[in-house]
Q: What sequence folds into this?
């Protein structure tokens, strides 16, 4: 939608007028003023062309204005061993500081319960405790054929994306091919999309057992326990079964060159296959596992962080469009707790997890845009617009246009700041970016027309976040 739309509203009284900033969208960037009334954007126009009056005028000179970021992959309030983890109340505020205005988390569905019960239970856990908007991917606790008929009810409820469909056994019996085939048939018929955690369980168990049998249980052997073939095979198998059923797929946390090539090949055949990678795969390579134990333990993830060659391939996918989104795979984890739980244990028993919901946007701008790897327009696609389109939030979110939610991020592209955990808001005792200097900082965050963070201060409420029903467009499922 171009910069002249919404002129018929210009003379109306608006609640907020943002002036002097540069609006950045995937298609263009332009100096535009924005009028907000209630929860919506009502007008865009060239500088000084908005008439009428506003209750609040925000001077955005020298700043970019992005649509609010959407994180399509978080794990908040996961029931894990050890200390209680920060919940939505803490994590969503951290998201606001990081420019994220919508989180898509997970809602576990037990085998014997209906989907509405599971989703209502999860909503009860979040309602009134979330500073930003939210939705869920239903996540089946067990991968049996009894679960497949629940797809239609989930789509009707407004949560048409399913994941993480685990092909490894870390959380129970992995999804087998019969389950995948039937699930894909059902999502294709019901206009849903399946989200995959793509790792071949049989190969994972083989590599782990082989390493342990050879006395190689130290942390430095962790990447060898889940080599690239583990992900590559699972991605290719998923694509094959999905192609036979006409289903759309989304791969969470893609990490390897070979898997990325498989996705690219599917896209060339015009299959509805989408993927994300995560900041840690772009920021680091497998040399992190060669560090002292207290540093290396920070980087346990599934899949593991891979080689410099994989890292370079992922950056190329970010640049050329093969990778659609940057999700965090945010899992709250305390470093001191990781140390205790990992002491005298082989790598196969060490806990994973790291928190990035607050640092995702800043990292990608600093390492991607500021260093010339991607354009600022591509950056907006990766943090917001593509996730909105793929998961059925667009054009309500993911864009700055009349009629869209006034989810807005005012961003200073020149501000330098040093990352230190003590100045973050995620409620944990470490960050993997400790000591990094980021270029570009979130100055203000608006969620549905309300300023919830400004100049380093939280000014929202935990009742601001609302559940978002979604409907995936036909162009995504094609």
A:
């Amino acid at each position: 939608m171009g910069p002249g739309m919404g002129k018929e509203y210009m003379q109306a009284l608006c609640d907020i007028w943002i002036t002097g900033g540069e609006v950045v969208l995937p298609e263009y960037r332009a100096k535009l003023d924005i009028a907000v009334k209630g929860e919506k954007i009502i007008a865009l126009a060239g500088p000084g062309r908005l008439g009428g009056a506003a209750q609040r005028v925000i001077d955005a000179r020298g700043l970019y204005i992005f649509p609010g970021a959407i994180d399509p992959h978080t794990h908040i309030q996961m029931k894990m061993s050890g200390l209680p983890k920060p919940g939505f109340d803490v994590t969503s505020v951290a998201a606001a500081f990081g420019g994220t205005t919508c989180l898509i988390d997970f809602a576990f569905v037990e085998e014997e319960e209906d989907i509405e019960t599971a989703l209502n239970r999860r909503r009860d856990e979040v309602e009134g405790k979330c500073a930003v908007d939210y939705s869920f991917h239903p996540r089946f606790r067990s991968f049996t054929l009894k679960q497949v008929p629940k797809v239609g009810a989930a789509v009707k409820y407004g949560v048409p994306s399913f994941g993480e469909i685990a092909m490894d056994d870390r959380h129970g019996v992995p999804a087998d091919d019969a389950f995948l085939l039937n699930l894909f048939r059902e999502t294709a018929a019901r206009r849903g999309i399946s989200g995959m955690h793509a790792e071949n369980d049989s190969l994972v168990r083989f590599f782990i057992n082989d390493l342990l049998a050879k006395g190689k249980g130290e942390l430095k052997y962790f990447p060898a326990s889940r080599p690239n073939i583990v992900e590559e095979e699972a991605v290719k198998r998923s694509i094959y079964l999905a192609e036979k059923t006409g289903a759309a797929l989304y791969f969470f946390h893609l990490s390897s060159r070979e898997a990325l090539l498989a996705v690219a090949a599917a896209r060339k055949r015009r299959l509805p296959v989408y993927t994300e990678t995560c900041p840690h795969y772009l920021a680091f390579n497998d040399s992190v596992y060669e560090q002292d134990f207290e540093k290396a333990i920070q980087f346990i993830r599934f899949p593991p962080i891979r080689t410099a060659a994989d890292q370079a391939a992922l950056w190329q996918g970010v640049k050329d469009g093969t990778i659609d989104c940057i999700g965090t795979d945010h899992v709250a984890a305390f470093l001191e707790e990781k140390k205790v739980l990992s002491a005298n244990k082989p790598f196969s028993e060490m806990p994973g997890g790291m928190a990035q919901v607050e640092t995702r946007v800043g990292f990608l701008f600093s390492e991607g845009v500021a260093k010339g790897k991607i354009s600022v327009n591509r950056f907006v696609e990766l943090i917001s617009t593509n996730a909105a389109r793929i998961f059925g939030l667009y054009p309500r979110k993911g864009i700055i246009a009349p009629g869209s939610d006034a989810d807005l991020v005012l961003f200073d592209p020149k501000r330098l700041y040093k990352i230190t955990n003590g100045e973050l808001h995620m409620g944990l005792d470490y960050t993997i970016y400790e000591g990094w200097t980021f270029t570009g900082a979130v100055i203000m965050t608006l969620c549905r027309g309300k300023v919830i963070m400004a100049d380093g201060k939280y000014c929202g409420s935990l009742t601001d976040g609302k559940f978002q029903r979604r409907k995936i467009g036909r162009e995504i499922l094609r």
Remarks:
- The first strand starts at residue 14 and ends at 19.
- The radius of gyration is 22 Å.
- The domain at 67-396+470-477 is CATH 3.20.20.140 (TIM Barrel).
- Residues 228-245 form the longest helix (18 residues).
